[in-house]
């Protein structure tokens, strides 16, 4: 059994300086007036950041030139810099390695599809959940990201879509580095800003935002009570507690039944279908009987309010595990569906640049 901390929080390290995007509307107004500026400037700044996707006050043309430096220093510190950006899939998938002011690194991935444009963002630098098949989990947890550091990933992706592709960012998935519900309050604040209309946020539909978790059952219930309407994705990876204790060590705290009960609460509270993520690993969790058990348990717990995303395991350095053969994968899908549970295989993007699910490691 893996010994887990009583509280799933990051190590105590300094958070970045206060940024305009960390503040709620009232705090933004207060911060602006503290600088001796009229209150209406707060709405202007918000419109520049969330509406026009500008984070440098020197480029904010409706702000008097004489105060831009002061505003930049007080409210718009440079939080992130690009270390490296690499692409694959004919340029449709791009992974960015970010470095924060304290040297912390993490990654995000922008993916263009025919009908949507999705950014996979990080909520923590590293991850403390220690799942053995995930490169991020094996690297350990460095620290939580601030709300503004999370939002900067969204703003940058939105600006890239607009400037380079004449398009719009449509989907946000909290499936990058970290366990989002272990950085609960900052992730919650970021989600509210992502879904609020400009100038209060980026104006992305809550139905197009997915928050992933390995199964922090109390936090799932808490998120349900927020009634945000975002999609919940639960990384289950096996239906039985014996194997899940090893594959997803947090299972030692909250068993499969507890996680599915919390997922049902979320579905009932929001009316949204829960996504079950399942990394299919050759000879580990791909047995026909496990497919049957998964289908039975999900049908009993969630009925029609569930969908299984099968993820062919993506290779990580030093791992002896591999993806299941295609015939095994097809049989698994067939058996899950036989229990009345929707099941599809995820389209894997970015595998060759270590940008796919479970591969993010933020190596400089």
Helix content: 25-40%
Rg estimate, integer Å: 21 Å
Per DSSP, what share of the residues sits in E-state strands of 2 or more residues?
Answer: 15-25%
Write down the CATH topology of the largest domain: TIM Barrel
Number-wise, the strands total 12
Name of the top-level CATH class of the largest domain: Alpha Beta
Task: Enumerate how many helices there are, as a single number.
Answer: 11
**What would CATH call the homologous superfamily of the largest domain?**
Aldolase class I
N-to-C terminal Cα separation, in Å? 33 Å
How would you classify the quaternary structure? single chain
Class per helix and strand makeup = alpha/beta
Low-confidence stretches: 1-12
The gross shape turns out to be elongated
Whole-number mean pLDDT: 91
**Spatial sequence of strands, sheet with the most strands:** 1-2-3-4-7-8-9-10-11-12
- Main beta-sheet strand count, sense and barrel state: 10 strands, mixed
User: How many structural units, i.e. domains?
Assistant: 2
CATH architecture of the largest domain: Alpha-Beta Barrel
